[in-house]
Design a protein that fits this description.
Length: 152
């Protein structure tokens, strides 16, 4: 795959705004482990290889387990995630797929059981930001680093 363009060179001020949003999310008070799960799950839904590669690498560096990363796509069937994480993951899926889900009341109610209003706004901004990053990376064909050759 060949990148189409470098958005940082093409529109540096726009990307500066994205980086500022990302900085806000990272400093919002949400647990970094939760952020890692949320942004990885949204990136899985959107099929963004660049972001999945980046965020699973970052999560591992912060101590996230391989098992939880491997099972993230099937979080509903795994006991590895806390009730708060489950609420965040359900919210992530509903917000990421907003055109299909319209974010049901039940998902909102579940999220409100585990997150304050401020936390829920910050979580939603986290989800909005990763969805924007996914769209930027996919649209411009960002290529993740590779460390070994493809299997034959």
């Amino acid at each position: 795959m060949t990148p189409r363009l470098n958005p940082y060179k093409a529109a540096p001020e726009a990307m500066k705004a994205m980086v500022a949003l990302e900085s806000y999310v990272q400093e919002s008070g949400l647990d970094h482990s939760l952020i890692d799960l949320v942004i990885t799950r949204a990136s899985q839904i959107n099929g963004c290889a660049y972001c999945i590669h980046m965020h699973t690498s970052e999560a591992r560096a912060r101590g996230e387990t391989e098992e939880r990363l491997y099972l993230l796509d099937a979080w509903r069937e795994s006991p590895l995630y806390s009730e708060r994480e489950r609420a965040a993951l359900a919210w992530t899926e509903a917000v990421t797929l907003v055109s299909q889900t319209h974010v049901p009341d039940g998902v909102y109610d579940q999220a409100r059981q585990h997150f304050s209003e401020t936390e829920l706004v910050n979580l939603t901004l986290c989800i909005a930001a990763i969805n924007a990053w996914n769209r930027i990376a996919i649209s411009f064909r960002s290529v993740h680093p590779t460390h070994r050759t493809r299997a034959v």
